[in-house]
Amino acid sequence: MAFPSHAVIITAAGNSDRFNTKETKVKKEYLSIDGHTVLWRASAPFLEVPGCRAILVTHPPNLAGECALALEELLEQNLVPVILVEGGTSRRESVFNALKMLSTLAMDIDYVAIHDGARCFIQSELIIRTLATATVFGAAVPALPTTDTVKIIDDNGIITGHVDRTHAVGVQTPQIFGWPAIWQAHQQAKAQQTNYTDDTQVFTDYGMMVGICEGDRENRKITYLEDIPNAAEQIEAYRRTLEEAQKAREATKLFKQSVAEYQRESSV
Questions:
Q1: What is the percent of the chain where pLDDT is above 90?
Q2: Three-state secondary-structure class, residue 151
């Protein structure tokens, strides 16, 4: 049986607020773990799944170059096109932008997988399992039973409700949806201006069904600074490289200004 034709969206346009401290301001997806960046590790396993037609990666404004570097050789391989898409001010806007780009490609696909660029321990087996479940329900998400007791609180931090853990699960990514239904759902969500943080909510609000499959406890998300070994050293190196690049850019600018001034004087 052939694998369904699908595209992939890797979301990596957020601010990494929970990862950064007052002293740091870096994109966690661009740091490395064991020789590869978080973003590379979150993206590369999708190339192992048959039927993948394109990978779209969202990035913050003005960081397309850094995003391209973080993808390492993935931009250069010729098996599947990898396309960079500028994100928006929210996760929903970033996914919308990627879906909009996908809609212009006239690509013959049946599903779209949306994966968090900070989930860098994803394995191709989980992708395949989620894709197979999506062919049954029209959409699917990997999930695990909730082990913590979940409470509902008010704005003052007071417990106001208790969640029955029997029917509670924690969902992961990739979240895989039928195409073009997920694009239509996001267009509706944008028109309603609802604050969504999860694509399954966008999809179910559109009146569609989402099934679950067994998640993977190793498929965890990089959230805090301590989640990446030697993150502090990497951030310091990143700062030095950025400062050197800025100095080089300024020197190039001054040189070009000097050449332009010399040319003007020579023409007089």
A1: 63
A2: strand
What DSSP string describes 207-234? T---EEEE--TT-----SGGGSTTHHHH
The predicted pLDDT at position 192 comes to: 84
Note the pLDDT tens digit of each residue in 108-133: 999 999 999 999 999 999 999 999 99
> Which residues touch 175 (CB under 8 Å, ≥6 apart)?
113, 114, 115, 130, 139, 140, 141, 198, 199, 200, 210
- The model's pLDDT over 209-234, given as tens digits with 9 standing for 90+, comes to 999 999 999 999 987 777 777 777 77
The distance in angstroms from the start CA to the end CA of the chain is 75
- Cα separation of 43 and 36, whole Å? 11
Rounded to 5°, angle at Cα 5 from 125 and 184: 110
Give the pTM: 0.85
Residue 245 is encoded by which pair of tokens?
């690049």
Please name the helix (run of DSSP H) or strand (run of DSSP E) that holds residue 189, with its range, or none: helix 181-192
> Which residues are 59's β-sheet partners?
86
d(CA 29, CA 70): 8
Q: Which of 58, 2, 73 lies closest to 27, judged by CA?
A: 58
CB 109, CB 176: distance < 8 Å: no
- In DSSP terms, 143 is beta-bridged to 171, 214
